[in-house]
Amino acid sequence: MAVELNELRDQIDVVDKQMLELLAQRLALVEKVGEVKSEHGLPIYVPEREAAMLASRRAEAEKLGVPPQLIEDILRRTMRESYASEKDSGFKCLNPELRSVVVIGGNGQLGGLFGRMFKLSGYDVKVLGSKDWDKADELLKDAGLVVVTVPIHLTEGVIAKLNNLPSDCILCDLTSIKSKPLQRMLAVHQGPVVGLHPMFGPDVPSLAKQVIVYSDGRGQESYQWLLEQFGIWGASLCSMDAQEHDHGMTLIQALRHFTSFAYGLHLSKENPNIDRLLQLSSPIYRLEIAMVGRLFAQDPNLYGDIILSSDENIAMIRRFHHCFGEALKILEGKDKAQFVESFNEVSEWFGDYSQQFLQESQNLLKQAHDSIHRG
Predict the structure, then answer these.
(1) For residues 177 and 247, what is the distance between their CA atoms, to the nearest angstrom?
(2) 192: helix, coil or strand?
(3) What is the value of pTM for the model shown?
(4) Which residues lie closer than 8 Å to 365 by C-beta, 6 or more apart?
(5) pLDDT tens digits, one per residue of 99-157
(6) From the CB of residue 54, how many other CB atoms can be counted at a distance below 10 Å?
(7) Rounded Cα–Cα distance for residues 374 and 43 (Å)
(8) Residue 213: which of 187, 233, 194 has the closest Cα?
(9) Which residues contact 204 (CB under 8 A, 6 or more apart)?
(10) CB 41 within 8 A of CB 232
(11) Which of 26-35, 48-57, 191-200 has the highest mean pLDDT?
């Protein structure tokens, strides 16, 4: 039996090496694709091409008796690497006549990411850091695009200093709130203005499939090329009114970050053995505690600024606290019938999204489970 098993394992090793060689060939081809896209100004992410390719491979896999989801998982993971490597080829510059791009806060992580992307596209990039304001006039006098990316509580104050930009200079910010920065930019600058919110962190390997929200301030015809440049980088653009954006962020960011903060705070006071929790955890709990723990590996000032950025956030969290209390009353009364009724009401509110989210989460949980090593 041992001999037979070893022979089969040797054959598997040979196939694995062949798979590695094929992956290396695919990545080499992708690199050439990136060069062609860079030369012709094509976006690195084309959703129609990706969807058609995955559908074709799934159908081919089914004919061969290979689970379609298996080939899709492999290809999606491969494509993620491909998108990251394609950016190394650089990007076509859509506005070669643009004067310098000045990134205020460009020494920070997000500012650094956008600075690199502009450089990869051939733009002249300058950084105005917190210690550079004595030479701000020199840096800004010939700016064609100014990008403000500083902590939320500093944003409006920094924008207020930008009252002497060239009249045709594009002024934008990357803040996670939009209404107040946009109003301030419109007040201090008479040229093109747009509010931007990258819905991702600075650690993304590529901007492919990443969302950038933009709120128009003034002169979209003058900054349209900028939106198209983001598209070439692979980003998906989402146009949204600033107030609508901020209301959405109350749920998407402020409430979510606060609940993670409160849960982490509670865990620290209960003081369980995290190693034991991980040994006992299902993939869904491990993913949950990982997302909570992720918050506490980052800058508390950033998350404090996000949560405290508006009274609307605090009001929303207060309503959540009330709802939590109402749910607790159901448990204290041991009223299972009321629990089921409330559960069904929420399920009805989610509608078809419940099944969609169930399927999406199952895929995430499979990936989370695959990454676990249990000794």
Answers:
(1) 9
(2) coil
(3) 0.86
(4) 283, 284, 287
(5) 999 999 999 999 999 999 999 999 999 999 999 999 999 999 999 999 999 999 999 99
(6) 16
(7) 41
(8) 194
(9) 113, 210
(10) yes
(11) 191-200
